[in-house]
Design goal:
Layout lengths: L5 H18 L3 H7 L5 H8 L18 H12 L3 H5 L3 H13 L2 H12 L5 E4 L15 E5 L2 E12 L6 E7 L11 E7 L5 E3 L13 E12 L3 E2 L5 H12 L1 H24 L1 E2 L2 E2 L4 H29 L6 H26 L1 H4 L5 H12 L6 H13 L3
Parallel strand pairs: 1-4
Antiparallel strand pairs: 2-3, 3-7, 4-5, 5-8, 6-7, 9-10
Helix pairs in contact: 1-4, 4-9, 6-7, 6-8, 8-11, 9-10, 9-11, 9-13, 10-11, 11-13, 11-14
Bound molecules: flavin-adenine dinucleotide.
């Protein structure tokens, strides 16, 4: 267990009560019914967790990354869908505005997010452009004091509930590859010309809504562009690194949740007249799971504490290492938890079965683990 400050202790205590009362009882139902409990937005908004990273000067709680990750880990032990909301607005609104927004933009948008009721999404991925962000085709063409946006985004988490999205679109030649002509905009989801596509049925995290977003001549005010024209994605790469540990926090949480269930089961389930936990074969599996979770957690919080202290020299490779290691750990541990529960672990409706499906996406979104390994290897080799 990580050392905690008094403030962290108090926050996590009250969050634990919310998890026990509001999330644990419906964790399975959210998955089965593929329904997001909208009332959680209010619950987390009132706790300051929707707007966790909004600084106090703008009316937010000003939580640091470490505390935010602790909160996310705690909720993910029970439900990754529940954990999704924590920090949801950070990468879309808060960090871009703080790092490359104007004073005016910060004063306009951050107090709005600080109220806690706003939901936002990040829209980067397109049907033919995932890891290869530079292949995106959505365009934003300047027309007086507006940009006119056309194109399609896919897989956008929380899009059906989003009030705003942070949209990445090409402001230069859409046929030109690369990320140096992509700009970043705050787009009101009520804008004329925006429609949502049907949500794909996901393997895991099924309570979280996703959707395609279509843009047909959507007019976005120039004042909603964050950062310089053409520099939107490049500027965002730094803040994506700053936020990447939050994915790892979900990973450590879901791994811990599955491990706890596996331990309890191994103590109770009998085979050959003994508790299965007495068999060395399972003891070694449990020991490995425990080691992996502790190592993942140590790496996670080493990274968040460095980021909170402003030590960014190895930020990119550390953020990639943490994302890879923790999410690979979550996949391994949840899979082993299913194994320890035997056939019962394979039954739909069992927590570990859901956790294993949920864990898989952590290796895919926010930059696949192959892309993270590429980043780590390039730095080790001195290529970039
Ligand atoms: C549940 C879910 C939620 C999501 N939420 C969002 C969201 O809110 N906003 C958003 O913008 N996107 C979102 N995404 C999209 C996600 O970020 C992409 O799926 C991801 O970036 C991978 O892109 P892709 O699916 O196009 O796969 P591809 O880029 O086509 O990759 C396919 C495979 O090739 C590998 N690969 C690709 N390039 C290389 C390379 N150079 N070297 C080695 N291997 C490589 C990948 O690792 C992967 O294994 C979400 C996806 C899912 C599944």
């Amino acid at each position: 267990m990580e050392e905690r400050t008094e403030l962290q202790e108090a926050l996590l205590d009250s969050l634990q009560r919310v998890v026990d009362k509001e999330i644990a009882p419906i964790a399975q139902q959210m998955d089965e019914e593929e329904k997001f409990p909208v009332h959680l937005i209010k619950v987390f908004g009132e706790m300051g967790l929707m707007q966790a990273r909004v600084p106090e000067e703008y009316g937010g709680p000003g939580l640091d990354l470490t505390t935010t990750c602790m909160a996310k880990e705690l909720v993910a032990r029970v439900s990754m869908t529940g954990a999704q909301l924590i920090n949801q607005n950070t990468i879309s609104f808060v960090l871009p505005l703080l790092h490359f927004g104007t004073d005016e933009q910060r004063k306009k948008w951050l107090p709005l997010v600080a109220n806690g009721g706003v939901v936002s999404s990040v829209a980067i991925t397109e049907p033919h452009a995932g890891s290869d962000v530079g292949a995106m085709k959505t365009s934003a063409v300047r027309d007086g004091d507006h940009y006119v946006v056309n194109g399609q985004k896919c897989f956008i988490t929380m899009a059906p509930l989003a009030d705003y999205i942070t949209l990445f679109a090409k402001t230069g030649d859409v046929g030109k590859r690369g990320v140096d002509n992509i700009s970043c905009f705050i787009v009101d989801m009520k804008s004329a010309g925006i429609t949502l596509g049907g949500s794909e049925k996901m393997m895991g995290q099924r309570g979280t809504p996703h959707a395609d977003i279509f843009f047909d001549n959507v007019r976005v005010p120039v004042e909603n562009r964050m950062g310089e024209e053409g520099r939107g994605f490049i500027s965002c790469m730094h803040i994506l690194d700053l936020n990447r540990p939050t994915v790892a926090a979900s990973a450590v949480g879901v791994a811990q949740g599955a491990f706890d269930i596996a331990v309890a089961y191994a103590k109770e389930r009998k085979a050959f007249g003994r508790a299965i936990g007495e068999f060395q074969g399972l003891q070694f599996m449990l020991a490995d799971m425990h080691i992996q979770i502790e190592a993942a957690r140590a790496l996670l919080y080493k990274c968040t504490r460095a980021i909170d202290a402003g030590q960014h020299t190895r930020l990119t490779e550390m953020a990639s290492m943490v994302k890879c290691f923790c999410t690979d750990t979550a996949m391994k541990v949840t899979t082993d938890a299913v194994q320890i529960l035997g056939g019962h672990g394979y039954i739909r409706g069992n927590h570990v079965e859901r956790m294993m499906r949920d864990a898989k996406v952590l290796q895919i979104y926010e930059g696949t683990n192959q892309i993270q390994r590429m980043v780590i290897a390039r730095r080790a080799l001195g290529f970039r």
